[in-house]
Amino acid sequence: MALLTLNTVSYDYPTTHGLVDLTLTVDAGEFICLMGPNGSGKSTLLRLLSGLTTASHGTYQLAGHAINAAYLADAVKRQQLHQQVGMVFQNTDVQLFNPTVAEEVAFGPQQLGLPAAAVTQRVTDCLALTHSTELRDRVPYQLSGGEKKRVALASVLALNPDILLLDEPLNGLTIAAQQDMLVLLQQLQRAGKTIIMASHNFQQVQSVGQRFLIFNADHQIEADVTQAELATDTTLQAQLMTL
Amino acid sequence: MIPNLKTKPLPTWLTVPNHPVKSKRRASMQFLSRNQHHLRHLLQRLAQPAPVQPSSWPLSPQINLLRLGLVLLLIASVHSFVWLWGLALLLGLQLLLLPPRQLRYFIRRWLLSCCIAVIIVLPSYWLAGPATVVFFGVKTSLMLANAQYFRLTTTFQDVLAGLKAWHCPNVLIMTLAIAMIYLRMLGQHLLLTTEALDLRLVAPTRHPYRLIGALFGNLYLKSYAYALELYAAMEARGFNGHYAKPVGTASHWRDYLSLSPVLILMGLLLFGGH
């Protein structure tokens, strides 16, 4: 059964289109890479999937629930949605607001009402997974761009969401840190998480993505291909290399 | 291809499916959503719609600004419906060049601003009678329509360029420029932060005011750092506190052509009698 279903979804900004007639089905456990030029709708799609915005037209269903304005107006339902869907923003600066990294990661589990020992365990695990243990007592505001990305991912993972939405998570990371993050994402996917990631770097993501959604400048999905299909399509590969 | 890195196994809690829990406490998220809504509204107001003037007929910023000033002055000065009708026709011709999407946006914004203006004009009904109310209502709505058209077709940078070209005091230009950039930047930052917070507020928080304090503390630090970076960047590019007259703002024949109807009407008003 499909986990996410978008049916002819469009999203309009006040003076321009964000998404146009998007129809998409995502199964649980998929690793999807969103690719396309700047402003083609990748971030808008992630915002829509996370419930930060609602579609101007069309329907969005998550695990059988229609995610619309009425659904999101219900605070309890919205909180349940946010337990299922975690998102790492493109600008992780906006995501970190606690006094220390440890408190930042603990924020979500504490909200869930977990016992103190479980919260500490989650913080330790998430910081270790993202190679950020040494940042534990640092102030998030003073971290470098790459460190902020890692801490933001740790803070989202601490909630154990089933769906991970990542908006350009590799930007600002060193090559080694990018590889570490991709390995971690692959592990999470093997553990059953659904991962949807927007990226510009085709070379980095081509080996980890199972499915590639390629947006065009008209805010539509131009191609929806699997990794195997993409491997044989040299024209598309060449196109993605130039993004 | 990713090298086969030595990986840490995932902790057990991260490998089990997440079963969302319902909070026992009352969900009180209205504060955050209400403020997000206000912020979006503010940003929408501050957002500059893309200029829609066709590139084959671009006007220089200073003439565009002068034109608006003269039209507003004309509307304020005339005392006849015929004149207002003529000025409305002039604007109508320009509106014809707008794409339908922008035109709809224009109408929506204009009607909204007119409604507010009418409420302000209405009290004069008791003082001066219905004819005056209608006349001033029409005048105000025409002024608002012109201002709205200017806003829709002119970027904020062009307004600044126009002010520079008319030798406005540097302090005014700098204040306007920085206020506009800052307001948008801070508004955008705060909106994104509240959205990020919303995504991680998976249950009603026990300490909402502590959260708000953290948000604003963070915003203050970011704005301070941003201001320093902005000023350093400006200095690095040779900024010494004075705004130079922008390059390429020389007037063109089409500027005078577009200005001519307004100048003719102004001349008629001043010397023709009415």
From TrEMBL, chain A:
ABC transporter domain ranges (all copies): 4-242
One Pfam family from the record: ABC_tran
Recorded superkingdom: Bacteria
Protein topology in the membrane: Peripheral membrane protein
Keyword tRNA-binding set for record: no
Chief site of localization: membrane
GO MF term list: ATP binding
Subcellular location, record wording: Cell membrane
Keyword tags: ATP-binding, Cell membrane, Membrane, Nucleotide-binding, Translocase, Transport
Family matches, as CDD domains: ABC_cobalt_CbiO_domain1
Alphabetical list of PROSITE patterns matching this protein: ABC_TRANSPORTER_1 (PS00211), ABC_TRANSPORTER_2 (PS50893)
InterPro entries: AAA+_ATPase, ABC_transporter-like_ATP-bd, ABC_transporter-like_CS, ABC_transpr_CbiO/EcfA_su, ECF_ABC_transporter_ATP-bd, P-loop_NTPase
Family, per entry: Belongs to the ABC transporter superfamily.
Name the record gives this protein: Energy-coupling factor ABC transporter ATP-binding protein
Automatic annotation (TrEMBL), chain B:
Keywords: Cell membrane, Membrane, Transmembrane, Transmembrane helix
Localization of this protein: Membrane
Broad class of the protein's primary localization: membrane
CDD domains (UniProt xref): EcfT
Topology term for the membrane: Multi-pass membrane protein
Segments crossing the lipid bilayer: 65-98, 110-127, 171-191, 211-232, 253-272
A Pfam family recorded for this sequence: CbiQ
Keyword field contains Transmembrane helix: yes
PANTHER family, per database record: SLL0384 PROTEIN
Protein name: Energy-coupling factor transporter transmembrane component T
Species for this entry: Lactiplantibacillus daowaiensis
